[in-house]
Write a structure and sequence with these properties.
Helices cover 52% and strands 26% of the residues. It has 90 residues and is an alpha+beta fold.
Length: 90
């Protein structure tokens, strides 16, 4: 299986989109500083993952999430609910 995943930095307003065939190992690599970009924004938390039967489909979804339309989808679907919860408890 292959995965497209989205991570959110606990320390900064950053997200990271990637694909892998071993989701747990990859998240550990991000949090251990093995990825150059994500090293300085640790720690990372998995906020979304999608499973695919082949790598080509996983890469296609990753490219979508990195596009303008995909970034809008992430903001609308993954962060809108968080904003609602924050305002409800305020």
């Amino acid at each position: 299986m292959f995965y497209t995943y989205i991570l959110k930095s606990d320390s900064y307003k950053k997200t990271y989109v990637g694909h892998t065939n071993d989701i747990n190992k990859r998240i550990d690599e991000h949090n251990c500083g093995k990825s150059i970009f994500s090293r300085r924004y640790r720690p990372w938390k998995l906020i979304y993952k999608e499973e695919f039967l082949n790598e080509a489909e996983s890469i296609k979804k990753e490219k979508y999430f990195k596009s303008r339309t995909g970034r809008r989808w992430i903001k609308k679907h993954l962060f809108a609910d968080v904003a609602k919860l924050v305002h409800a408890h305020a």
